[in-house]
């Protein structure tokens, strides 16, 4: 083997080593990206579950709020009627 062949082999070996290092780095970056994608998918799934739960809770709260509004109106109407009745009795008592 000549000296120039040995130099060429050394250069080729260095290039191969550099290419393998670059490939290893690319694989590691890809693994990190895949891990990040998996974490993001998990977070998105969790957010979707939270959204569904919150939507259910909101629906329940709206139903409860409507019932409370209805009850409030009924109580208000009854109080109004009671006030009118009391005033009428008081007015009748004052006349007699």
From TrEMBL:
Top-level lineage group: Bacteria
Entry protein name: DUF4164 family protein
Organism placement in taxonomy: Bacteria, Pseudomonadati, Pseudomonadota, Alphaproteobacteria, Hyphomicrobiales
């Amino acid at each position: 083997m000549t000296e120039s062949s040995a130099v060429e082999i050394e250069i080729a070996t260095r290039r191969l080593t550099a290419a393998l290092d670059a490939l290893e780095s690319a694989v590691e970056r890809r693994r990190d990206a895949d891990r990040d994608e998996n974490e993001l998918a998990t977070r998105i799934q969790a957010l979707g579950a939270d959204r569904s739960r919150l939507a259910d809770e909101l629906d329940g709260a709206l139903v409860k709020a409507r019932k409370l509004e209805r009850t409030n109106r009924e109580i208000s109407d009854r109080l109004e009627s009671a006030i009118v009745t009391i005033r009428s009795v008081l007015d009748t008592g004052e006349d007699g």
